[in-house]
Design brief:
Blueprint: H1 7-16, H2 18-27, H3 32-56, H4 64-67, H5 70-94, H6 101-128, H7 133-156, H8 161-189
């Protein structure tokens, strides 16, 4: 394996064999600053894309631009994702997983890139083939879940997609609850 990362190949493998892609990205043992850069860039690009599409498509009722600003949205997504990374790391270790926070953060940072590509595909379908948008978005959601669980399987070394699915559900739930409790606690401090 070379020291350079071939992003195109890694992206293709992420869609076809995500467990192998997870193993490859983990084998690079990226430093925290590289992981954080990938993570932040993907979140910022996805946020920009979401807000641009929201402005382009004038929908009735609540829209993203009506309830948040891009930097607040990106910050919330980033913090929530980091909390979930910690929860997935901790939960996986309870099931004898090998993944620490850094390995989970690495695969989740790469997952943000993969999901950004999926998001672009979804938006293109929405523009070009609007009647198929719902079906494509549902398929992308399922595909994204499969990739997420396979990445967790690679990071924790389970070699068991059922166990990895359980860790994904429990870790994501714990992270979400932890984030919700923190937000409620902080909001009560201001009163």
């Amino acid at each position: 394996m070379t020291s350079a990362i071939n992003l195109t190949t890694l992206l293709k493998i992420s869609f076809t064999d995500p467990k192998q892609a997870g193993s490859i990205i983990l084998s690079y043992d990226l430093p925290y600053n590289a992981i954080a850069s990938i993570f932040a860039a993907a979140i910022c690009a996805s946020t920009a894309m979401l807000f641009a599409v929201d402005l382009f498509y004038d929908t009735e009722g609540l829209s993203l631009t009506n309830v948040s600003t891009p930097w607040v949205f990106a910050l919330l997504v980033g913090v929530m994702t980091l909390v979930v990374c910690g929860a997935i790391s901790w939960t996986g270790q309870r099931f004898s997983g090998l993944g620490d926070f850094k390995s989970i953060f690495t695969i989740v940072a790469w997952l943000q890139v993969v999901q950004m590509v999926m998001q672009m595909t979804s938006f293109l379908v929405m523009v070009l083939f609007a009647p198929l948008a719902g079906i494509v978005q549902f398929a992308i959601f399922l595909w994204s879940l499969w990739i997420f669980v396979a990445f967790i399987d690679a990071a924790h070394g389970f070699d068991n997609m059922i166990k990895s699915s359980l860790v994904a559900v429990l870790g994501s739930s714990l992270g979400s609850i932890g984030m919700l409790v923190t937000v409620i606690f902080i909001s009560t401090l201001g009163k």
